[in-house]
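Holo model, adenosine monophosphate. Inputs:
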Amino acid sequence: MKRIVLLGPPGAGKGTQAVRISEKYNIPHISTGDIFRANVKEGTPLGKKAKEYMDQGLLVPDSLVCDLVEDRLRAEDCANGYLLDGFPRTVFQAERLDSYLMSQCMQLDAVVDIEVAPEALLPRLTGRRVCSKCGATYHMLSHPPKAEGVCDVCGGEVIQRADDSEETVMNRLKVYEAQTAPLIDYYGEDDRLLRIDGEKTPAEVFEQIIEAIGE
Ligand code: AMP
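Output:
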């Protein structure tokens, strides 16, 4: 049983680590960004609203996020834990999550913060590419797909996320500093926060995370 929150600035490698962590502990990977992107793709009312904010690198309003996550956490596959990636993103969301958990007599087992120096984030994000079909992630410099524009895993088209353009990335980093970074203090006040050095290879970062969380 592991209930885990994954924190870190955009570009810290949360998505990459999330896949590995959810496999390791056999828990669902819940990414609010993925949920919003799926809604945008399907053109749902939620997707239409979320897109206005996402395209500018702004946070989707708390009111649209919290109920969505609570509903997801009530699903059967969350009975043995889950990994939250990209949620909470504000102190308000963290407080809502805590009161939801308390109402269910539950608590988080770990809050993992992947730390990367701010100057390393911009090149990580603007060089990032993703498979439009399976979501596999690449980087133009450090991990390009074998054939340009084609996913190694599924053959899908490898694209740049709309919000990974330089201008939007700058906004996302500002928004992170202003609204999400305060969560480090929020969770640091009790003993829930595990600080991880995110400037190592993905395999080394994963090793540190597993060591910190425990079996
Ligand atoms: P991500 O894939 O986690 O980087 O999320 C992409 C975008 O989705 C963010 O830049 C926000 O616009 C939106 N988003 C994802 N998660 C949240 C959240 N917990 N609160 C508000 N907005 C979010």
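The beta strands are 2-7, 29-31, 81-85, 110-115, 128-131, 137-139, 158-159, 193-197. The CA atoms of residues 70 and 100 lie 8 Å apart.
Archived with the compound record.
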